[in-house]
Design goal:
The chain has 271 residues and is an alpha+beta fold. The protein has a domain at 3-25 and 121-222. Helices cover 42% and strands 11% of the residues. It has 13 helices and 6 strands. The longest helix is centred in the middle third of the chain and has 15 residues, at 140-154. The radius of gyration is 21 Å and the shape is globular. It starts with a helix and ends in a 31-residue tail after the last helix. The relative contact order is 0.16.
Length: 271
C-alpha cells in the first residue's frame, strides 16, 4: 500500500464528501522552500486551509500566512498570549465559569513544542513523501468507521479529548502530532464560521504512522459492521477504481441473530 492506493481504498470504503488532508511540518528552511507546493500569497486561518485542502487545494503556509491568532500559537508560529495562558482572556469572554477552569483548559491542550518554519496543507493524495498528520472531516458515521478501523488493531480508544475549542488546530493537529495517537473533534464555533463546515460534520486526526493500518482496519471491519446497502455501494466504488471486491460478503454482520422482539407477559400484580 502507498499513499495513492490508500486514498483510493478509503474513498471506496467510505462515502466521503471531502478528501483526506495531509499536514506536514517543516523545521528546515531549505526543505520548506524545496517542497513542491505553492505558497499562499495571503492570510488564511489554519482551519480554513484544511477545509480548502479537503476540496482539492494545496498550499504551503508560514507565520505570515496565519489569519487566526489561536491557530498561530497552537502551531507555535507565535507564543501563547498571557491572557490565554493565565485563563483570564477566555474567562472575560464568558467561555468558562472561572479563571481556574479557563487556565486548566489551556494547560491541558497540547500545542507544538518546536517552532516550524512552515507547513504544507494539501490533499493526502498529492503527497509523494509521508506527511505528519492526516485529517478527515466527515459525517459522524464515517468517523465512527475510521475509529472502528483503528480499534481493529489497537483496541479501545482511551485518549480521545476535545472541548469544542481550537478544534482543527489543537484537537486534530497538535494533539495528534504530540501524542502519536488518533483524536476526534466535534469542531468549534470559530472553525464552523471561518471554514464553513457542514453543521453535522466532525473530524478525526490520525498520525500518518497509523494511517495504513487504519485503512486496513476499515477494510477488515466492512463485513461485520456495514449493512448490505452500504456494502453494495462500497462494491460499486471499488469496481469503478478496478479494485478487488471478493472479500465483501452480503448478508453477514456482527450482530446477526442478536436482537429479539415480541410481546411479553406482565404479571397482574405489577400493573
Amino acid at each position: 500500500m502507498n499513499i495513492k492506493s490508500s486514498v483510493d481504498l478509503i474513498e471506496s470504503y467510505l462515502d466521503l464528501d471531502r478528501k483526506p488532508v495531509g499536514i506536514k511540518f517543516f523545521f528546515d528552511q531549505e526543505e520548506f522552500d524545496n517542497f513542491e507546493a505553492p505558497q499562499r500569497d495571503r492570510k488564511v486561518t489554519y482551519c480554513n486551509s484544511v477545509q480548502l485542502a479537503s476540496k482539492g487545494q494545496a498550499m504551503k503556509l508560514t507565520k505570515e500566512n496565519q489569519g487566526c491568532p489561536n491557530g498561530a500559537f497552537a502551531l507555535n508560529f507565535t507564543d501563547v498570549p498571557d491572557p490565554i495562558a493565565s485563563g483570564k482572556g477566555r474567562f472575560k469572554k464568558g467561555i468558562y465559569k472561572d479563571v481556574e477552569t479557563s487556565k486548566n483548559i489551556n494547560d491541558d491542550m497540547l500545542f507544538m513544542k518546536e517552532r516550524p518554519v512552515g507547513m504544507a496543507v494539501m490533499p493526502l493524495e498529492n503527497y509523494e513523501e509521508d506527511p505528519d498528520i492526516v485529517i478527515t472531516v466527515s459525517s459522524s458515521f464515517n468517523i465512527m468507521r475510521l475509529i472502528q478501523g483503528h480499534g481493529y488493531f489497537n483496541g479501545y480508544t482511551n485518549n480521545l479529548r476535545t472541548v469544542g475549542l481550537q478544534a482543527v488546530c489543537q484537537d486534530l493537529t497538535t494533539y495528534t502530532y504530540n501524542t502519536k495517537d488518533i483524536n476526534i473533534s466535534l469542531l468549534c464555533p470559530g472553525t464552523r464560521l471561518v471554514a464553513d463546515w457542514v453543521p453535522d460534520e466532525i473530524g478525526i486526526g490520525i498520525p500518518f504512522e497509523k494511517w495504513y493500518e487504519l485503512v486496513e482496519g476499515v477494510k477488515q471491519t466492512i463485513n461485520p459492521f456495514e449493512r448490505d446497502k452500504n456494502k453494495k455501494a462500497i462494491i460499486g466504488r471499488l469496481e469503478q477504481r478496478g479494485l478487488d471486491t471478493s472479500e465483501i460478503k452480503l448478508g453477514e454482520n456482527y450482530d446477526d441473530g442478536s436482537y429479539s422482539g415480541g410481546k411479553i407477559g406482565i404479571p397482574q400484580n405489577s400493573i
